[in-house]
Amino acid sequence: MGDNPGEMSSIFDESFNAGLPVRRRDLLHTVLRVFIWIGMVLSGLITLLVFLNLFNIPEVISRAPGYGTGYVVGMMLACTIPGAILFLMTFPVWMEAKWAINLNIVFAVMWGFLLLTMVLVIGFASILVMLPGAIYLVPYWIFLFSIRKKWNQ
After folding, report:
1. Which of 10, 51, 97, 118 is a Cys-bridge partner for 92, taking CB atoms 3.0 to 4.6 Å apart?
2. pLDDT (tens digit, 9 = 90+) per residue, 114-146?
3. Where are the domains of the chain?
4. What UniProt keywords apply to this chain's record, in alphabetical order (predicted)?
5. Nearest partner of 134 among 151, 103, 112, judged by Cα
6. What is the rounded end-to-end Cα distance, in angstroms, of the chain?
7. DSSP secondary structure string, 27-54?
């Protein structure tokens, strides 16, 4: 027993809870949490808009004369790829997957190569195409990569 008469003794010492792992979501800065939710909502909106347009196939085809139905539908489904990539970048981080930051590193490298390729092929005007993505992705990756060491422990 301790010095206080109301204090209960314990078979565990003070170091018992010291080795408990930290929840990965607790490592996320508030700004990073906002970025993650924006990414998940945007990816859902992109997918929703594409699937809503799938119900208007005749109207979409009338606006794209000379293209077959298969081509138009294929291009519409291909428009879900950016949304799917954005979802793959944010959802595993929110679900605290250990490999989530490493996956984001892969996407960051791919995005960098895409930007470099576009600059070399199209010119510096292509930077304007990538600018909206950069405004979102660069701060997201900076915040995310700053917690990488703690995340992987």
Report:
1. 97
2. 889 988 998 888 888 888 888 999 999 999 999
3. 27-151
4. Membrane, Transmembrane, Transmembrane helix
5. 112
6. 36
7. HS-HHHHHHHHHHHHHHHHHHHHHHHHH
